Every structure is written in C-alpha cells, then in structure tokens.
Amino acid sequence: MDYQFIREFYYGNLTLNDRDMPRNSDLGKACNAFCEAETTLTEALTGAENDALTALLTAHSEIVGISERDGFCSGFRLGALAMLDILSGTE
Asked: 14-35, pLDDT tens digit by residue?
C-alpha cells in the first residue's frame, strides 16, 4: 500500500486552502459584491473612517481564517473518528 498522502503531508506539499473558485458560483458572486462594496466605501471614506473600515476588514479576515481552520480541524477529527470506528469493526 502506498502512503503518498502521508508523505506529501509530512513534507508540507499539500495546500489545502488553495482552491479554485468559479466567478459565477454563489461564493464568487458574493466575493465580487463584497469587493465592489469595499471599493465604494474606500473611495467615499477619508481619514479615520477609512482606517476604521480597514480595521474592520482585517478583523473580518482573521475571523474567517480562524473559522476555516477550526472547521477543517473538526472535519479532520470527525473523519479520523469515522475511520477508527470502521477499522475497529465493532458494528
């Protein structure tokens, strides 16, 4: 049995967060709307208002990143538990 996945995982060759996003998908459309709104606000705001928008967007980005990481970890654990259950053969 070839454990290529484990080897690639060990060497850090897996980029799990590098995915293609079709522009016409629901997520692509939402990202486009977000970017357009950000551009409009950035152009309309000045000084402290623009700084506040930048801080808000940075915090939002951090929240999304943490949420994705935690979701990945939870899913990985759930998958590992499912494999343990399958391999134990108790059912």
From this structure: 776 677 778 899 989 999 999 9
Longest dimension (CA), the chain: 64
d(CA 23, CA 39): 18
Helices 26-44 & 47-88 angle (0-180, nearest 10) = 160
Report DSSP state, residue 68: H
Residues contacting 72, CB < 8 A, separation 6+? 16
Q: Please, are residues 42 and 53 in contact by the beta-carbon 8 Å criterion?
A: yes
Q: Is residue 27 within 8 Å of 21, Cβ to Cβ? A: yes
**Span 66-82, pLDDT tens digits:** 998 899 889 989 999 99
Task: Look up residue 25 and give its two tokens.
Answer: 């998908």
User: What is the arithmetic mean of pLDDT over 29-55?
Assistant: 94
Q: What's 40's DSSP letter? A: H
